[in-house]
Amino acid sequence: MQFSLVALAALVPYVSAHYFFDVLVIDGQETSPNQYIRSNTRPEKYNPTKWINTRDDMTPDMTDFRCNKGAFESAGQTETATVQAGSTLAMKLGVQATMQHPGPAQVYMSKAPSTAQEYEGDGDWFMIFQEGVCNPDADFTKDAWCTWDKDRIEFTIPSDLPDGEYLIRAEHIGLHGAHVGEAEFYYASCAQVSVTGGGDGVPGPTIQFPGGYKQDDESFNFSLWSGYREYPLPGPGVWTEGDSAFSNPSYDTCRRASRRAHRSVYHRTYHGSYRSSYRRARQRAR
């Protein structure tokens, strides 16, 4: 989709609050808008997705929640980027927008049975990156969050990820209205990639979209307006690279329980390094 300079100038104030990802950045090099990221068909491309008070009847319980409304219609015209396992990628917002809603960011991947262009995303999704609060001393409704005023979500393709074609799904969740059940703004977009030079890791745990998020999840019914408190990050937890625990049920059960116990950490990355909680950091500093 091409924008004139006049149209771009008109859009910027609106997409600072509502936005969409359309540029894939590969090892610091920006590609063309929607070259590798599927375009949606929403009347206004920056519309959020919510369970209530929807903008265009789009909710997280629909199949289009995987990659945004109508995105599969553009899959055949979207190129598939070849990327190396271990490389650094980013999903960048369109039309000079930045993320100006408080809330976490997640990046998921799902392996295509054949090609990414033909894949609707109806398989299993695993998380490779997540970030929440970076500065609990800052304004919890604004710049306490790692994503605040950034124009992209940056992440690393796990070096142990098996070769093949994948969808990469990036999302940012705005929590400013979660206290009344209306914050669930999901600015999700999917990139098509072919991963090379990978390993034999077993990604997991996995979820599916729709169904992986529930309207009554604590993550989506959370108030920011009474000052800082630990936030329960959404999703299944970030895949720990090289983890083959699925062959050991007892260990897998313990690992899942451990991840549930750490759901309120601030920042999780694909290599499984958890940023310690603010409370423990304060205790160590005493």
From TrEMBL:
<dbReference type="InterPro" id="IPR049892">
    <property type="entry name" value="AA9"/>
</dbReference>
<feature type="domain" description="Auxiliary Activity family 9 catalytic">
    <location>
        <begin position="18"/>
        <end position="226"/>
    </location>
</feature>
<feature type="signal peptide">
    <location>
        <begin position="1"/>
        <end position="17"/>
    </location>
</feature>
<keyword id="KW-1015">Disulfide bond</keyword>
<keyword id="KW-0378">Hydrolase</keyword>
<keyword id="KW-0119">Carbohydrate metabolism</keyword>
<dbReference type="GO" id="GO:0030245">
    <property type="term" value="P:cellulose catabolic process"/>
</dbReference>
<dbReference type="Pfam" id="PF03443">
    <property type="entry name" value="AA9"/>
</dbReference>
<keyword id="KW-0964">Secreted</keyword>
<protein>
    <recommendedName>
        <fullName>lytic cellulose monooxygenase (C4-dehydrogenating)</fullName>
        <ecNumber>1.14.99.56</ecNumber>
    </recommendedName>
</protein>
<keyword id="KW-0136">Cellulose degradation</keyword>
<comment type="similarity">
    <text>Belongs to the polysaccharide monooxygenase AA9 family.</text>
</comment>
<keyword id="KW-0624">Polysaccharide degradation</keyword>
<keyword id="KW-0732">Signal</keyword>
<dbReference type="GO" id="GO:0016787">
    <property type="term" value="F:hydrolase activity"/>
</dbReference>
<dbReference type="InterPro" id="IPR005103">
    <property type="entry name" value="AA9_LPMO"/>
</dbReference>
<dbReference type="GO" id="GO:0005576">
    <property type="term" value="C:extracellular region"/>
</dbReference>
